[in-house]
Amino acid sequence: MQEAAQELTVDLAHREGVPASPWRVAWRRLRGRKLAMIALAAIALFYVVALAAPAIAPYDYRDQDLNNPSQGPAWSHPFGTDRLGRDQLSRVVWSARTTMIVTAATVLTGSIALSVGLGMISGYAGGKVDTAIMRTGEVFASLPGLPMLILINATMREKVVRGVDWLESHSSSHALRTGLERHSGPEFAFLLVLGLLVLAGMAGAAAWLSAGEGRRNALWLAPATVAALLVALLWAVQGIYATTGAADYFLIFGALSLFFWVGGARVIRSQVLALRETEYVLAARSMGASTWRILMSHLLPNISPLIIVGVSASLGAIAGSEIALTFLGVGVHDPTPSFGALIFDAAGQSTLRNYPHLIIFPAVVVGALIFAFNLLGDALNDVFTPRAR
Amino acid sequence: MQGLFGYAVRRLLWVPVILFAVSFIAFTITRFGPGDYVDVLAGPRATPEAEARLREQTGLNDPFYEQYGRYMKRLLTEGDFGESFTKYRGTPVWDIIWPRILVSIQPGIVALVIGFSVGIAVGIFAALKQGTWLDPFAIGSFLFFQSIPVLVSLPFLVLLFVVKLGWLPAIGWGGPRVDVGPQDIELGILSTHIILPALALSLPSVAGVARLVRATTLSVLGEDYVRTARAKGLPEFQVITRHVARNALLPLVTVLGLSLSTLLEGSFFVETILGIPGIGQLGFQAATSRDYDVILALVLILATAFVIANIITDLAYTLIDPRVRFEERRS
Q: What pTM did the predictor assign?
């Protein structure tokens, strides 16, 4: 504790006159950790590659070079080709995209929306609501994760495929184009409203960021959150439909979110339980602040370090789960590439013996990514909860 | 111990409730999946009328909660998990599962023993070398193994030990055979086949144990009785084994439950890649062949095991550390 206090004073003395925000202090501490910064850089590189997959991959992930199946690394195919003559480098790059979509979507729905929302409600409301949420969480926590995910993905796939087909026929980029041509139609109006909302949300977020410490409150935060969700949705509508396997993504992140909220919700609930009794919440309430305002501008900023630590700790597990499910044949289906499928194809005994190059690249990328996630998670945990040292 | 007893009873009373909720969720999901018993039984050339008749006979037209009631009644009164309907058509599910549990337990136990003994050694070593580069190095290198999923590390182990060095047998499982229905399973007690799966399963658990042991050892090292032991001239080895280790290892009980689930998840990949006839491989086969009743039975059995293991862990925790009291805590 004393150590932390000393560090804080040193940090404060660093820039005289300018009060250091907790975020700046945390960032400065994080920057001091070389390993964490390397991990952060590796993760950033991974996501950049994933975002720019169409530009980076030398071939399409479906293109077959039938003259060179199962070829070792060569100039035309740096990582070699698989049994069907598909370029391994392109498949690795596109698999990164699959991992990116699943981790981003699961973090947004499971780790942030579900666990923060339910944790805060549970802690602040107390009583029956609290009991109901926590008991539900207990049931989910006692379900054996992997067999249950297998069960859900094996049984629900066709329903989700049908649902996504319906969505696609109503709101895809194709529907948007026809809507633009006709300058009418409910889809066009829907997307127009969506776009305007996103613009409003972006403006709100910008205003929130530029507003001073004291003036930030829920009114600015809400549109920013909505904007983030809508950007994700729009991007999903435009981006996911462009690739096959959209239904698989929805199914996987839906199923994963069900299982990844419990731990985070418990931590956040206990923190909210403690914060609820603090003087500043009492002061806010006595001045007539609404529950929403107390939750958003008094409690949320105080639990945000917990959220960041929780999210960073769960990222590795989420990425690993998608890969594991695909490996077991119930995740992303062919031809959509995923690391799970790449490893499964390469892990057979005879493939290992004859074409060891197929296992090396996907396995090294997956190992490095999850290791980097865990290193960053550990470092963030130390940075935000210095008492744990 | 009054509080502990009350806490134990309260926890145990919750077990059936949780298990009923779990079984209801899992059962409901299986009844809404594509393809059911009738599709397989009637075959692809059956007329719609024949299928409808069969559906009526097997009770698949009833609402799912009635089917759930029947299933649970059969399960609780006769211990009947139903029958497999694709891969091992007509075999009772329990007959498929029990020999496989025996198979899966073996590498699991060996992996637990390896993981805990290496973890304890590394943890104490790191604590004694605190302040030198050996401490972060020892913990960090096993942290690396913890981060790597089994399905990534295992192919490399196979590549090294089987393909390149040829030290270990390739795939499969040895030992006496058991005939159960259409299955023909090797029980594999004491064969070299166990080395590779046990190694792959134990690697990820070392770091967790080592970090916990390091933390507890560090706190014990500062205790007065350790200084007393040193002051009266005991050899360092004896101080570590008798005075430090004994007190530092108690909290390890709490990791046991956690390692159980890690082991189970790992066994899915280990058994699939190495062709070991355990429950992980069964789960994989059942998932790909849509044998829902088999997965359902697996989920129920594993959920029961988890819930019980969690309770034992919690109770052991209170018994070990008298500072943890449950009277005041809302369970």
A: 0.79
